[in-house]
């Protein structure tokens, strides 16, 4: 009876957690990226679910192998937005029955190791350090529903797990007080959060590959503030850190909105910016039993980091 009361309403599948490390050599200078990639497909795949028909299934192992192959041949591999678009475009172009591809890329943080040179500090050409746990993120959808020559892409990018802290210029007062309220108002506190940022570009048209193997991926000029502009990620990170550091914060909410406004104002083709800011609480230790003042903000110097529970503040700012 169960098959008579339900239908397949949506289906998407692919490969997750494809780990890619790529070295690009330019003489003695080596460039590296490390990615975690997810690639998912939609299209005429219904019968693989409803009729056990595998003839419409591009094996997830093939999707993994295509990811590695494009990491080898793509001239765009060092730029995660472009690599994700290249991979998604190839997938929808290669398979007639696949109409949408969804690719997410998480880029791990590697920076060149600074060394002493003849003219002072300089970057080492092929030695790197993981200098932070934050990651650069990209999420791409390439839609071929209107035809393989009418590709449209939607792109979001951002940052995850960017841990920050400041020891003053953060307050939280004048909030709702009722019988459930135990939190004390404070005009100076530690503010710490692990920032997740996602900003979304206006949809773009993608040129269809013209080579026989649909492996080429030409890109247009780097229109300022668009997905093709390689300075956008740096500007978004800079804006996030500068606002966090310099804003005399009345609340996480107010600081969050100021960050999002700046990202939209600095990048003409960013349509929205979203943040998720979980509070990382640092609670002053009560030492009054020893006759030591450590609770008044101006005297608080020893704190207990609290992992949970934590506040979670989220919001999206959208271009008018």
Automatic annotation (TrEMBL):
Pfam families reported for this sequence: Uricase (PF01014)
Record-listed E.C. numbers: 1.7.3.3
Enzyme kind, highest EC tier: oxidoreductase
Catalytic activity line of the entry: urate + O2 + H2O = 5-hydroxyisourate + H2O2
The entry's keywords: Oxidoreductase, Peroxisome, Purine metabolism
Residues binding 5-hydroxyisourate: 60-61, 172, 189, 252-253, 279
Binding annotation for O2: 60, 279
Main location class: other
Catalytic machinery residues: 15 (charge relay system), 60 (charge relay system), 281 (charge relay system)
A single MF term (Gene Ontology): urate oxidase activity
GO BP terms in the entry: purine nucleobase catabolic process; urate catabolic process
Localization of this protein: Peroxisome
InterPro entries recorded: Uricase, Uricase_CS
PROSITE patterns found in the cross-reference section: URICASE (PS00366)
Classification via PANTHER family: URICASE (PTHR42874)
Function description: Catalyzes the oxidation of uric acid to 5-hydroxyisourate, which is further processed to form (S)-allantoin.
Protein family per UniProt: Belongs to the uricase family.
Protein name in the entry: Uricase
Native source species: Mycena rosella
